[in-house]
Amino acid sequence: MQCLWCACNGGLGAARGSKHRALVLRGTTSSTATSGTVVRVPGVERRAASPTWVNCETDADRWGIGVVGEEDFGVVDVEKARVGVTRAFEIQNKAADREHHDIVLLEVSLGSEKAKAKFRSFSVLEKGPMSIPSGQPTTIHVKLCQSYIGRCYDRLEFLFEDQRLRKRFIISKALQAVIGNIDDHNQLQPKVPYVQRQNLRAGIERQPEIDVVPGELPASTKAVPYVVQLPQAPVPKNVLQAVSGGSFEKALQRVRQECVPSVLDTRTYGRHFKQLLWIEEVQMNRDIEMYDMEGTELSQHRAYLYLKVPGLAEKRPSVLVGDIILVQPHKAARGHWFQGGVHVVHRDEVGLRFHRSFPWTHGQLYNARFKLNRYPARRQQQAIGLDFAEERVLFPVESHLLSTSTSRSLIAPRPVDLRFFNQLVEANLPQARAVTSIVGQPPGSPPFILFGPPGTGKTVTMVEAIQQVLWHNRNARILACAPSNSAADLLGLGLTALPQDQLFRFYAPSRSTQSVPDSLRRYVYTRKGTEDLGKQHDARNNARSNAVVSRDLFSCPPVAVLKRFRVIVTTCVSASFAHGVGLPKGHFTHIFVDEAAQATEPEVMVPIRTMGDEKTNVVLAGDPRQLGPIVRSKIARTLELDTSYIERLMRRAMYNSASASDDAVQQFVKLVKNFRSHEAILKFSNERFYDGELQPCGRPPVINSCLESSLLPKKHFPVIFHAVAGKDDRESVSPSFFNVDEVIQIKTYVQALRADRSLRITDAEIGVITPYHAQVLKIRRALSAVADGVKVGSVEEFQGQERRVILISTVRSSREFLEYDLRHTLGFVASPRRFNVAVTRAKALLIVVGDPSVLSLDPLWRDFLNYVYYNGGWQGPPPSWDTTAVVQEANVGDGIDRREGSDMDDFTARMEALTMKAVEGVDGMEEDANVDRPWRDVE
């Protein structure tokens, strides 16, 4: 009897020696099965007469024949693998009766040969045919030869025939090897098997918070003299009930029916976003549970009890001065907690102060629970709840454009007296046009949008526009915001030519005064805050006395002084301070928001709704083609909380491309000169995301600095794709993935970059981007001894940044479960925004490391891989597909169309939903999915 699956399916059968049900034919071989009933087997179609199914174990001894050998070559050093490593397989004929003595080995082959693979790591040195005598072993040698880091898999097939009975059978062996550094593999491989957190918590009720003893909060919580009370805005019970229990689909249905208005307009705007903010807060509270600590110690120094927090330096969790952490003795009474106020934040520990009744003892074990800082959510709820019915701001249409002679000056030639502060902006036509348009807008205009693709100088243009508005309007008062402190600092640094009495940089009191850039120090306002540390021991006189500590705290000057500043710079959420201390609505003539695509709409509404009136002009700068705001709730994302305000406006008719080119309207300008990247690095994203309009204008000494590097497969093409067939792993209770093979390849590249004297590159000029936090940690560990200064982070952490050299580790690689690969990999790979950000950070050299067999499942990635291969930038085993074939936009596995434009987020969201369903098989796994989403400080 002949097994069609093993013998006829081109090497795609039981690749790991697994048992399978196989179709067998009586009295015929697969080659002669040309008539009869059509029988379908996964991957094959054969016609058979009277088919019978039997169980077949292709790796088992059969009819007295056994094959023994080392199928796993283990970890093989690259140099040894390049030369070649040979393993022997012994065929033993152990038949006791004469009936099975006449055994012939017809053929020894590899599954990759039958599949006609372009690249094979293994080869068979003796092919057959040969007789297999009884009692005397026959040796077959298999050679491994590969010069690339990664994993090799194949199937070795022995086809035998019993010549007396005229029956054939197959014995197969699964070959595998790992090419790489043994020491690195031992150091980086999983130390503890992965255990799903939900399984660990099964049947364990989370400790309640019944009796909480208040702690001592730092002086910074009262540093700003607020006169307007901030609402508590607790999550309503109906929202909590709607998002809890059942599947995602049912929860979403309840939310739509019971919470969110069916139509978004000026009347329902406030209710809509309040609900979404509460839904997101519920998920954030769930996510922060993953950082709960049990059985940890507290150390004492002066009046503080210090808690070590793993991941604190990476904001996992994010903890700021003024936050609260609940602590209880390890075996305390159920529900009894002590509130610890965070007074000190160091790199890996926080200093807490509790009520004097807190039972601290050296060596005692404690449980700790992190609490979500609700101030950002409350500030957004406050802003959304304010009466603000400016249709021109929320839902602008062309009829809102003011048809005065002043507005017509927007499209007129630049005024003669418009003298640019930055001559480079003057020479850049789109930048100059944007500045001219912003300056000429009459009060009460619809929002102006500056669309700035990567490296085109959004912030420089915004700074110039602010300076020109101040110069041309002596009564102008500007509130300049950005979603993060780093982005707000860039705005502030661009305005340091202003006198000290005209520019104020406001920081939230929770931030450290040491975080201020030196050039901005004279523009901040601080006040002394004192804290009574209680009785402290004085070694000089062996006495105890009250100790009082005094430190500088960020604050703001009196309202009368605030009104005199012409520009105030802060984050979007912290902009609520102006309303809170009593600045009147309409005080600011202009509100500028830089990097607006990275903020949720409620964040941007904090400055607009608290400070704007019918005359306030709004200017937005950003790129909706790059990453949007981080939203942790799948329900909130489905309801488009992750659609930024600038993106929503750009979908409206008055901001579309036709209007943008109309000389009668200048509310939208697209920047097109890229000052960051070499043309080869920019080209792919330019064509796929920006209609080919971007013009490479980077400084030649920088963008051309790597063109002669020995690392390049092809000189003068500074893009490399390095194919690595790796293995994605998890360990302990972390659901985040890592890929040791890619870590080793990244390390190899970094070492080569640092050793290349022609490049003269420093650690600070290299960046490594990877989507999974576990991979971030593994790469940092691998680089710690060779290039400790290289920044390694997620795509989100690199948005807005650039490096001379960028390396990308895509991580996902699986050979065992194609469906698993397809769905889970696309959770990252099919995000066009994430792809766009990652590949546009490099100035002079882009290196992508990944598994092409997985990446190519996605049309966008396959297009990119074809681009690199066609231009000679490929390293490693060649593509397994036809690189000249036109890439179909339909997704390979799910029939989901990708189209550029407004449905980009929807495509990503659907793929992420499929991802988690494929990985775990159930809904409700958001906490695991969110482990790789960074926590963002918005104050």
TrEMBL record:
Keywords, alphabetical: ATP-binding, Cytoplasm, Helicase, Hydrolase, Nucleotide-binding, RNA-mediated gene silencing
Q: Does the keyword Nucleotide-binding apply?
A: yes
Q: Which SUPFAM superfamilies match?
A: P-loop containing nucleoside triphosphate hydrolases
| InterPro entries assigned to the protein according to its UniProt record, in alphabetical order | DNA2/NAM7-like_C (IPR041679), DNA2/NAM7_AAA_11 (IPR041677), MOV-10-like_beta-barrel (IPR049080), MOV-10/SDE3_DEXXQ/H-box (IPR026122), P-loop_NTPase (IPR027417), SF1_C_Upf1 (IPR047187)
What is its subcellular localisation?
A: Cytoplasm
Top-level taxon of origin: Eukaryota
- Tell me the enzyme class: hydrolase
Write down the EC number.
Answer: 3.6.4.13
Q: Which reaction does it catalyse?
A: ATP + H2O = ADP + phosphate + H(+)
Where does the DNA2/NAM7 helicase helicase domain start and stop, copy by copy? 428-510, 559-634
DNA2/NAM7 helicase-like C-terminal domain location: 643-852
* Family statement drawn from the similarity comment of this UniProt entry: Belongs to the DNA2/NAM7 helicase family. SDE3 subfamily.
Q: What is this protein called?
A: RNA helicase
